[in-house]
Amino acid sequence: MLELLSLTAGYDRRAPVVRDVTLTLAPGEAVGLLGPSGCGKSTLARVAALLHRPDSGRVVIDGEPARGYRHRAPRAQRTAFGVVFQQPRQSADPRLRLADLIAEPLRATGRPEGAADKAAETADTVGLGGDLLGRRPHEVSDGQLQRACLARALILRPRYLVCDEMTAMLDASTAAALVGVVEEYRRETGAALLAVGHDRVLLDRWCDRTVEWSGLGSRHDDLAAAKPPAGRSPSVR
Predict the structure, then answer these.
(1) Which pLDDT value is given to residue 139?
(2) Which of 61, 35, 36 is nearest to 48 (CA)?
(3) Beta strands 64-65 and 56-61: pairing type?
(4) Which of 29, 8, 6, 18 has the alpha carbon at shortest distance from 161?
(5) pLDDT, tens digit, for every residue of 177-236?
(6) CB 197 within 8 A of CB 25
(7) Which residue in 165, 198, 159, 160 sits closest to 179, CA to CA?
(8) Beta-sheet strand order (sheet of 18-25)
(9) 124 closest CA partner among 163, 181, 189, 180
(10) Which of 34, 100, 105, 115 is most buried, taking the most CB atoms under 10 A from its CB?
(11) Domain of life here (predicted)?
């Protein structure tokens, strides 16, 4: 289980963008985090994935408190997460070929053996043709680059996926394809999902429950009352 407990976070301690927020994500559960632009969703997602240190509160991963953030996080905790951001061009090193972009987490965690083969295999699972793997980000479309970024997020077989507006920059068919890839991965592995967005229809269809958040204010337990999609019930309250 991933537990975000009484988190306050931001980029200036005098003006946090997340204040006293609690949210839980059970193993295998898909939770949608719905809210308008600027309400702090992405900051909370970055804290959840150990990419940003909160000002206060705790992140607990499978019963163990986070022991660091970013490169200071222990490898076992850091690699429990796969993250896909909204804008692939801002999250991809423009110098890297797509094959190297996808394999980057393997090399960063000291697992270079067979990285090229694993990158090609993972690229295939996200629908990225092998002929594109030798290209650099400026030589492919946004959709193709986002497929590579999703492959990068999956290559270490994470237990938790954080998708921060993953489909916002994509056409409808590519968005549907990538959501399908995430769901297939979750069926195979039992991974949990935190999907951040402002499209209620997408989140309600994709997730077990949708949590609506307007931003700062009084204390939020699970941010707000969880709203399950019609015909589905939330696995955690």
Answers:
(1) 97
(2) 61
(3) antiparallel
(4) 29
(5) 999 999 999 999 999 999 999 889 999 999 999 999 876 543 445 554 344 444 443 332
(6) no
(7) 165
(8) 64-65, 56-61, 2-9, 18-25, 220-221
(9) 181
(10) 34
(11) Bacteria
Tokens coding 27: 């193993």
Does residue 118 have a pLDDT over 80? Answer: yes
Give me the phi and psi of 176, to 5 degrees please.
-65, -40
- CA nearest to 80, candidates 115, 39, 36, 48: 48
Identify the CA nearest to 133 among candidates 93, 101, 100, 99.
99
Give whole-number Cα distances, 195 to 14, 82, 153, 209, in Å.
28, 12, 14, 10
Q: What b/e readout covers 177-207, taking b as 16+ CB neighbours within 10 angstroms?
A: bbbebbeebbeeeebbbbbbbebeebbbebb
**Cβ pair 204, 229 in contact under 8 A:** yes
Query: How much is the pLDDT for 215?
Result: 64
